[in-house]
């Protein structure tokens, strides 16, 4: 195995990892405002990509992308508004079950709207044969799109949460719901907005990755579980931790091809997930003091 | 004889020292009260003694045996029982069932008997039920025994929690604000019940804000402020203690 | 035990006989095949009902235990040990009569382990895996536990799908019949439909008696206490970790047994049995049954599994289970087969009749 080859694996690993980071951020945003894990997060990626694929046949790619993100965001909002908001008994168990139910419904709807075949969005620039030389490794330009988009989202979110009133209000909700409510913040609307934001980020991630990994109606699940692994690695709710966790998982997973059969590639991230949950559910990058105050 | 001894106990949460070098002891069959303003570390102290929290340093001795950092269930089995400030009943169970859970450490049927109840287990179950019923009627809530515990009014829930603790036949009972949220009549009833329990030979450690209750029933009082023990003595002395008055009324009035 | 305690069991037995008679009378005996399968599936669902509904935990990976049971027995009863008959362990097993011989569809004689030994091995493997997974995972709560069990289930699924010994995507077929005393056989032979229906019924009956006893025992009370408040349960002297582990392992064993028998009945098993959708379906059936309601869960599981196996929901099978999950959590978080609902219905009709009769009186 040459150095160039390893470098190539690392580079694609970073790109895949940044997709996992976007999924993880989707989990974090909803977790921070509601304390629940949205089991349908992976379906946002699939929906975004599927809608974009269909729309791109009748309009330019860029318009299809924007419209796909908008539509997925609306679906995210409707999901919260019609199901999460009106739960009679919002226990953790019921929250888990209802988001699982919603993920099944979205998946099944996608199966009947589209089909069980593999679809793929066109490459944003060039085609499947074009490649760029980065320090000796040849990668598809789409990987650069993936990296660029993730960087944009992370920077954008940082600005949003730190420097806008809405972002600050959402952060207030995550640290203390009641206090936020007493300050006149409409907590329920913040929850809706967190679902919209997660859906939008998910849809964008689904679109940029679609040309590389392709999209199938049930493709969201495996991305979802990897995104969750990343979220746990970085400590649930901690976006910067997720960034580090995502890059670690992405690279590790790609390098695993060297010593593990390809069929077990997915089992690797699952094993990491179960081990982390078993020994350090607070994540790798969370201070001990903080974790002692939380329940897992 | 001291049934419980706490020595140099410390516990911090991040930078906050919730319990700071606290030492005290509880004499057998006494009622000892712990008072102090909100956030003084009283409940943290209880959580450390009952094992729900791990200590940073110091020791807790129950009948000369160190118990700090043992899991709660092991401490409970030694004869230490507690109630919670924000009542923790088993909401999905009836009053009788709640109290029967209290008999858990006084019965033995294991997993085999759970699957295939042998005659002895069935007999034990009957005894458990009878004892639980006896405690319930002793505390005057016999008419409620088949109602779901979570549906009861607040005052009654406190009594159910009491009954559950008593069902464990503890040697020492830790009561965390037993009169919180109760009206005057209910508080008086609770005071009577506590005295009655002590008369049965049970030692009591109690956290309470209701001063009249504390002054009526306790043998000694300990005062905590910001995690530090600032005074200890019989109720009369404590009432006159300058430091205590300062803590409760603020500096200006002292 | 009083008659009252036996009543549900008597009703269940009677219901089984009545269903069989109806099915035979209207000449749709082929329904018995799906009913038998629904019965076996119920075994895993009622044990999950105790784990989720009574003990208040969550598992999104129980299909994995079903698959562990099914695949263990499938491998052990389809592998031909004939060449190894001289070697140590096989010789010993053969010597004490724990092997059987069957003819496979190609006319080849296969010497394999007896299904009883396979069942025993499957249970032992399940217990070991449940302990390894359960000890760390049961320390977690809520979402963390859900995700960890989901991850476990997916790992097993991936391993089954990726390994040659488990037949990869095709699974394992030609699993022989499970022979029992008195010449009884668990297999999908259409001539043995009736006896298999009653064997399955008997196994489920045994299962439900065990779980019914558990609910009404000291251990069952401890489990419900853990559901109510883990902290208070610990303060009451309950070793919460031990009890949670016990019910996790017990329900895993139920799932395993269900997998073993169903594999012999069906004559094979595929990786889909370990899939997430299966695990989710089991949870859905517990939710629909009313969480802490073992009879409701059993009833709903039998009805819905039967309809699903008959293919009533067609390509909307998963969608159906997804939608009932949402419907029940939103509208009936306590299930519908609850006593209160029946009394409420009764009162509603009573009021209705009262009003009517009042109207009549006024007129």
Task: Note the topology.
The complex is a heterotrimer of chains A (296), B (254) and C (363).
Chain A: H1 3-34, H2 41-55, H3 61-84, H4 92-113, E1 132-134, E2 137-139, H5 141-163, H6 165-175, H7 177-182, H8 187-213, H9 220-233, H10 239-259, H11 265-279, H12 288-292
Antiparallel strand pairs in A: 1-2
Helix pairs in contact in A: 1-5, 1-6, 1-8, 1-9, 1-10, 2-3, 2-4, 2-8, 2-9, 3-8, 5-6, 5-8, 6-8, 9-10, 9-11, 10-11
Chain B: E1 2-13, E2 16-27, E3 31-35, H1 42-50, E4 57-62, E5 65-66, H2 72-78, E6 80-82, H3 95-102, H4 111-115, H5 119-138, H6 154-167, E7 172-176, H7 184-199, E8 203-207, H8 211-217, E9 220-225, E10 228-233, H9 235-240, H10 242-249
Parallel strand pairs in B: 3-8, 3-9, 6-7, 7-8
Antiparallel strand pairs in B: 1-2, 1-4, 4-5, 9-10
Helix pairs in contact in B: 3-5, 3-6, 5-6
Chain C: H1 3-25, H2 31-54, H3 62-78, H4 88-95, E1 99-103, E2 109-113, H5 115-137, H6 142-162, E3 172-173, E4 178-179, E5 185-186, H7 193-215, H8 218-228, H9 230-235, H10 240-266, E6 268-269, H11 276-288, H12 294-309, H13 317-330, H14 339-362
Antiparallel strand pairs in C: 1-2, 3-6, 4-5
